[in-house]
Amino acid sequence: MLKFVLNRLLMALPTIVLVSVAVFTLIRFIPGDPAALMLGDMAEPAQIAAMRSELGLDKSLPEQFLVWTANVVQGDFGRSIVNDEPVLPLVASRFLVSAEVVVVAVLLASLIAVPAGVIAAWRQNSLTDLALVGTATILLSIPTFWLGLLLLLFFGLKLSWLPVLGYVSIGSNVTGGLLYLVLPIMTLVIHEMGVLIRMARASTLEVLRLDYITHARAKGLSESAVLWRHAFKNAFGPTWTVIGLILGNLLGGIAVIETVFTIPGLGRLMVDSIFARDYPVIQGCLLFVSLSYVLVNLVVDLLYPLFDPRVVAG
Fold first, then answer.
1. Staple 235 to which of 71, 180, 207, 252, CB 3.0 to 4.6 Å?
2. Nearest to residue 132, comparing CAs of 118, 143, 116?
3. Distances in Å between the alpha carbon of 102 and those of 220, 243, 254?
């Protein structure tokens, strides 16, 4: 087990290095001069040159990368051009807002969709199976922004059950904060259920065809015992991987949902920073999202042996 963990950690290091290089390089392709942007249109060339020297932009790209990497390792992501705030606390606070929505949505979607997919596989080619697969296909086909707008229209405007736009921190007001998060969480749950139902169904069907399932049935075990005690654990491994991928994708790609529901999360911060050409914040957001994705997938890999011990044995 220790060897497996060390191998996964060592495999994550090159990924982190490549991600850092990619983030640093992509920011350098954005047109415009950060120094001129910070000083404004009325700045003199000498002032711009001095600012470029202060920011280290007059150095070669390899030197800039080494300086930036050293600062990041120390927790210094730079300062925002727009409001002169440190980037790391700003990005971290917005990330927590996004995580509130994403983690709860993925958890609820998994609790609903995984059992539904298992039941669909158990009742293969029945009306139940067709209904669940058809529902999953429809859910996959609906764009999240359109689904979010529909939920806003129905539950917010027509029924007036939930607030339409805005955000209240759960820390300051638990009830109010939860009400504002219901619709964005519901949007993500409905959409991601389609992926998870299909994945859980496919992996369960594959397991149900194995010899040990036939042997368990031959021993006289009930279908529920065969399904949940023997088939489910082995079938959940591939689904667990998909759950990790969904979680990582949503943590970095929730900008559309946050824009629709005006949630001040990391995706919204990235969009606003792009429009404001706030390069340090854009760079910080990209790096934070990328590292979060790598970390989530690393955790998924480390927990995978819980569902399939053969991974460690191999």
1. 207
2. 116
3. 42, 12, 8
Among 241, 266, 239, CA closest to 253? 266
Query: What size, in residues, is the chain?
Result: 314
Tens of pLDDT, residues 210-258: 787 777 778 777 777 777 777 777 777 778 888 888 887 777 667 888 8
Q: Position 148: which residue type? A: G
Distance in angstroms (rounded) separating the CA atoms of residues 63 and 56? 9
Q: Is 211 exposed, middle or buried (0-12, 13-18, 19+ CB in 10 A)?
A: exposed
Q: What's this model's pTM, rounded to 2 decimal places? A: 0.81
* Packing angle, helices 174-208 and 232-253, rounded to 10: 140
Q: What tokens does 195 get?
A: 């992926």
Query: Which residues are paired to 86 by β-bridges?
Result: 79
| Look-up of token digits 């997919």 | 117
Cα 58 to chain center, whole Å?
36
At 304, which amino acid appears?
Y
Token pair 């600062």 is found at 71
Tokens matching residue 194: 């389609």
**Is 162 in contact with 181 (CB distance < 8 Å)?**
no
